[in-house]
Amino acid sequence: MREIYLDNSATTKVYDQAAKEAYMVMTETFGNPSSLHSKGVEAEKIMEQARKDIAGYIGGNPDGLYFTSGGTEANNLAVIGGALAKKRRGNKVIVSAYEHDSVIKSAKYLENNGFSVTYIAPDKNGIIDPMALFNEVDDKTVLVSIMMVNNEIGAINPIKELCTAAKRKNPDVLFHTDAVQAFCKLPFKAEKLGVDMLTVTAHKIGGPKGIGALWLKKGVRVLPNHFGGEQEKQLRPGTQATPLIAAFGKAAFLDYHSISVRKERMEWLEKYFKESIENIDGIVLNSKEDALPNIVNISVPGIRSEIMLHFLEKRNIYVSSGSACALGAKSHVLAAMGYDSARIDSAIRISFGRDTEREDIDELVNAIKDAMSELCR
């Protein structure tokens, strides 16, 4: 039976070219990029080329790109390190109520260490309203963190407008956006958005797990939470994972240069899936209009998410119940949207990828129908 993988928002299959790039660096250009001899210089050149390339795709200065172990570490560093660097100016932090756990738990950490945290709920369309943010920012606000694309429902936030609103109220506020789900799916330029900090990661774009990056606007100061070396300008010390960095650069090149073609395909897949389920009684659509087409969130009230997941898995169909990092916990994203427990407990996220075909959607829809027939009896 053919494997149907529809959990690309959790992680993607690594591009063959990216895997080969990592292998080449591991076996040929394997020097420590901090070493002064020729093997180290070779590795450093590969790393710096990847830094330059990825920063270019982000639309920011390469000097501001710092490699991390992934999106979670980059978000921790931005939220906690950014807030602590500004604590003399104030103690208020604002985040959206449906951020990734790496931001929510960083905010909770700050809350337990003397900061006041405000959680802004999305509107009925799943969007954070710039005016709602404007009303919350005050002269004590030091940091705002709002994700560009929500990882569970695909809602796209107007980051430029949100950043403008926050800084109009308080020019000193740091604005961070988690762009993990947006990178190489939406065209954007960090410098033009006006953000101070931006997070990306490799494994959502056909790169390996274990490597991500935090981009900082020139002049932005963030306190490190790792110590022990001079690497990454002491912001994230430790020997850089050069093979993963090289593979990240290769994956970003491949994914970035296929944005427009892939976007059209994702829009077609989304449309086809929605049309396939619109006349099936008992399926509720949680993702709103104008969301990222790669992500569609639905509920089948009466069938708990984990029961549906296992039913589909037996047919070699792989979806998720939300963020993989939440490890099956109830979705705080759908709770922030105001949905009831029956809808939350039965939600599944379908996320299309570069290998998704029309036949995959047909198989998924037929399997969901069978699940509704068998499990709701």
Notes on the protein architecture:
The chain has helices at residues 16-27, 38-58, 71-85, 101-111, 130-136, 159-169, 190-193, 242-256, 259-277, 305-313, 332-336, 341-345, 358-375; strands at residues 4-5, 65-68, 92-96, 116-120, 141-145, 174-178, 197-201, 212-216, 284-285, 295-299, 317-318, 347-351. The two termini are 27 Å apart. It contains 13 helices and 12 strands. Helix 3 (71-85) runs parallel beside helix 4. With 377 residues, the protein is α/β, with parallel strands linked by helices. The strands form 3 sheets. A 7-stranded mixed beta sheet has the order 2-8-7-6-5-3-4, with helices on both faces. A 3-stranded antiparallel beta sheet has the order 9-10-12. A two-stranded parallel sheet has the order 1-11. The chain is globular.
Average pLDDT, to the nearest integer? 94
Structural class: alpha/beta
For the secondary structure, the number of strands is: 12
Strand content: 5-15%
Order of helices and strands: EHHEHEHEHEHEHEEHHEEHEHHEH
Rg over CA atoms, rounded to whole Å, is 21 Å
How is the biggest beta sheet arranged?
7 strands, mixed
- What is the 3D shape? globular
Helical run tally: 13
End-to-end span in angstroms? 27 Å
Major sheet: order of its strands? Answer: 2-8-7-6-5-3-4
Note poorly predicted spans.
none
Helix content, binned percent: 40-55%
What is the topological layout?
Blueprint: E1 4-5, H1 16-27, H2 38-58, E2 65-68, H3 71-85, E3 92-96, H4 101-111, E4 116-120, H5 130-136, E5 141-145, H6 159-169, E6 174-178, H7 190-193, E7 197-201, E8 212-216, H8 242-256, H9 259-277, E9 284-285, E10 295-299, H10 305-313, E11 317-318, H11 332-336, H12 341-345, E12 347-351, H13 358-375
Parallel strand pairs: 1-11, 3-4, 3-5, 5-6, 6-7
Antiparallel strand pairs: 2-8, 7-8, 9-10, 10-12
Helix pairs in contact: 1-8, 2-8, 3-4, 5-6, 9-13
